[in-house]
Amino acid sequence: MPAAPAAPDGPPPQTRRAPAHTPGPRVPEAPDPDTETDPDAPALELLVHGVGGATPEEMLGDPRTTRVTGDATAAVFRRTEDVDAEDRPGDHRNKPIPEAYVWSNLTSGNGIRALWLLLLPFMVVNLAHWMRPTAGGSARTVRFYGVLVRLVALTLTLLLVAAACEVALDLTAWQCAGSASCAGEKSWLGFLSTAHGGWWSQPGRRIALAALVPAALTGLLWYLSHRTWSAYESQQPLPGAEEDAAGPALGRPGFWYGRRLVARLRAAHTAAGFLVVAAALTAATARHDRAADSTVLDVCGWALQGALLAGAAVVVWVVCRRGRTESRFDTVLDRALVGLLPAGALVGLVLAVLYAGWSRPAWSSVGRLDGGARSFGLLTLAQLLLVLALAVTAVLLDRRAPVARTAMRGLGGPAVAMLACALGGVMTGGVAQRVADWLDGSGTPGMATGPDAPLAGPPVLLTWQASVIPPLLLVLLALALYYGVRTWRLRAALRPVVEAGHPTERPDAVRTGRIALARAAAELTDHAPRMLAALSGATLVLGGIALTGAVLYDEVPGRAAEGTPSPVEAVAHTAQSLGSWLIGFGFLLLVTWGRRAYRDPKARRTIGILWDVGTFWPRAAHPFAPPCYAERAVPDLTWRMATWTERTRGRLVISGHSQGSVLAAAAVWQLPRRTRRRVALLTYGAPLERLYGRWFPAYFGPACLRHLHDEVDCWRNLWRHTDPIGGPVRVVPDEGRHPVDHDALLDPLAYGRTRTHPLPAPILGHSDYQADPVFAAERDALLDRLPETNLPRQNTPHG
């Protein structure tokens, strides 16, 4: 069923709602004393800011504010003069008590969070889990979709640890330390050099020592995941919330408490990381032992590889076995599995270190370390196949229960998963290429073929992946040019529309052009699905080309053995060189940006905006993703609303801007029904339908937003045509009920100079909704309507 457009304004807010007409007798509910509102009690306006954060002074319009509850991470503030406002109800008889919930430190607080940029692929793949289409009754297909996303997430962990092994074991300990010319220029590698002839000079011992680096990285990821869970996501939800089997998932008691799944996935991914390091050591060592005819060591190698395969099978089983439990507040942990699985993998790593460190005087390091090229090739192939399977599953789900305006017809999740894999590949290739260039000095790793070439370089697949970066950038450039021209043409088409909206004003070409451009640019948001489809499709095709090239041509693209290179070889060589430079530059830019954000609070706030959008959702696919701030913010808001209304028996309006509107809606869903009847919802600049409803249809689709309106009749949404983020929620009410969407607000407030606006009024776009007089009027109207919800209600179903 297609989504209906925004409904026009309905009856005045003060008009009492007439009961909807439905056939058959209706039995009215008995009055509930718990939901009766004290007419003399104060009213409260709970403000929730959006992305980028805000200070309590800015939100409350007063330099003197006091924290009334919360801590340094997230807290509720009031004006200092309003701290005891409940004891002085006469001072706020005609206006609500304003208080601000400030949650910006959850995403952009201390400097160490800038390092979360390195976890960007994990955050992106976690979004793919929540982008699935609506279920449509096919529970088995929904579970399979979740399994596929978790497997894609597992490959990203394997890719990260494999990249660390490539840098530490292959490039550094195997290739550079095994080359006299390379190790001779690095004093810190002297004790590992073959020219030194010391105890550590044997290849097995060198790579065994270097294995500490990827093992430490895996341990660090485990520690960060465990620590951030304790600091951010281990908040107890409000007890007493009723489970509605037919209601949306965000209203279920266990939605914002995924401790069991995160612990299971953390154990599995940690074990997988240790097993990758152990496999890198064992594969190279066992290959040498088979060629050296060492029976005892050969048997040990086969036994260890068999044990590692068994451990890998257990890891995959744990990842696939169980998904999220949302229907109840689940505090049970699989303690045996959570503890034994990483410990067992760590024991396997220790045995692999001892096995590789056994004395083998005849072993010498030549070329690349065995197993690296195959590992990256298999990981890339697995990612491509998993993304394709995910796309097929998403199409099946969308066809069974199609939802109008769903982004990419349900293929948003697979597209985002593909981009996560591409980001992982870029970061992997960037690290390997830059380290290889640094170790090789003035040479180009893998390009020299003579005996004096110090390094063979990273696996060829990483070089082929670098070669597809320039074509991908050309796709991005083409998209930018197309939508730039389209926006400019739309600006010209909107000029008469803007002027028609101000018939009494004298036309001003410059002013009209600016307003039309703001409206045209705001509409780019609605074309994001097409942009993502083009980008992810190009990434999938180019990734397949890179994998095919690495398999068919096991050499660096563009390297001619003899004579003058052909035109195709010249183009390939240029693409490889440019891609290698770009991929390294991109990684350095990422590190530099993170370092700047560590020192500069303003830059840290900019990075925090990325996490405001990307880490709203719980960690359902990847346990090493940045923590979910909503698992702290939603319980905070729910507890505050429930305890204040219970204590004062007053009316409350929760007022959310931008991402704050999403938090507000999620918090209202979690309220007990008796509390929800005392609460009004005011959203403005809200991406509830425009972004979340389209990209996350199973959680913010039309049915979910309609359910929210059925539960919260006092809901009003404000939006502007110039807002690139917020928009109408497109909920059509039943006959006689108040509409949710207000008509589009004027922006700017005045076209030209007026008595009220003697200076040019700014084009506000997504900001400063409270500057519009409509804001205060709609807020007060919502508070005036709240007592109606405490009258006897009819059991009128809403379809």
TrEMBL record:
Positions of region (Disordered): 1-94
Lineage, uppermost ranks: Bacteria, Bacillati, Actinomycetota, Actinomycetes, Kitasatosporales
Source organism, top-level taxon: Bacteria
InterPro entries given in the database record: AB_hydrolase_fold (IPR029058)
Transmembrane segments: 111-130, 142-164, 207-224, 267-286, 302-320, 332-356, 376-398, 410-432, 464-485, 532-553, 573-594
Compositionally skewed regions (Basic and acidic residues) per UniProt: 78-94
Keyword Metal-binding part of the UniProt annotation: no
Keyword Transmembrane appears in the UniProt entry: yes
SUPFAM superfamilies named among the record's database cross-references: alpha/beta-Hydrolases
Leader peptide range in chain numbering: none
Identification of the protein by name: Integral membrane protein
Alphabetical UniProt keywords: Membrane, Transmembrane, Transmembrane helix
